[in-house]
């Protein structure tokens, strides 16, 4: 099982490198975020021992438990990728290095105010509701630039880019959503040049996301295997 995690990581790194080379991009422009939600610390340790350092979590309680468990491994970066309730912002501000799921200024304001002063600014990405699903989190595309202009005012946050979870296309082809995100990212970078990260692509669609400029792909199942259904999933 744990050997599998190392093997899956190695094979993912290889496939990423091949796609990135075909796109004539620098290898450093693509990061794999290993999404460890619902998985035990033993699995994270296996990935860590295989050299992996970027982990994604969806639930605040799990983020706190795992970050506390691994507090001696200060080179781990925890990416918070789940929905954020305002009464949970303090824990996220304390334990995460990167937050992918910003879609409300009220949350941003709290994260900035609660970011511990001994830590660098919290890196944040704006979550975009790119498929315009009524029930889904995220800012609509047309509101992203104005939202970004407000977000960059918070002193303890650093806007690094955009994130999306496109509605899965029926034929498995998400190129329309990915291409819209790529365009939106270019528009954002004209106003905020350092906001160059694009977090998109999951286990089922990440190769396509990379060809549309994804710089952070978030892989759960592909690295850690199937998840048990969880009550809040
Ligand atoms: C669970 C999750 C992932 C990983 O999903 P897989 O399909 O298992 O790769 C990525 N991003 C977000 C926001 C998630 O909630």
3D shape: globular
Secondary-structure-derived class: alpha/beta
Largest sheet: number of strands, sense, barrel closure? 8 strands, parallel
Number of helices: 9
Pick out the low-confidence regions: none
Terminal Cα span: 24 Å
Q: How many beta-strand segments?
A: 8
SSE ordering:
HEHEHEHEHEHEHEHEH
Mean pLDDT: 95
Name the helicity range. 25-40%
The largest sheet has its strands arranged as: 7-6-5-4-3-2-1-8
Bound molecules: pyridoxal-5'-phosphate
Gyration radius, rounded: 17 Å
Strand fraction equals 15-25%
Provide a short characterization of the protein structure.
39% of the residues lie in helices and 17% in strands. By secondary structure, it is of the alpha/beta class. Strand 6, helix 7 (175-191) and strand 7 form a beta-alpha-beta unit.
Description:
This protein is of the alpha/beta class and 233 residues long. Helices cover 39% and strands 17% of the residues. It contains 9 helices and 8 strands. The protein has an 8-stranded parallel beta sheet with strand order 7-6-5-4-3-2-1-8. Helix 7 (175-191) links the parallel strand 6 and strand 7 (197-199). Helix 1 (2-22) packs across helix 2 (41-49) and helix 4 (89-95) packs across helix 5. It is globular and about 45 Å long. The mean pLDDT is 95. The structure holds pyridoxal-5'-phosphate. The site of pyridoxal-5'-phosphate (PLP) has 13 residues, from strand 8 and helix 9. The site of pyridoxal-5'-phosphate has 13 residues, from strand 8 and helix 9.
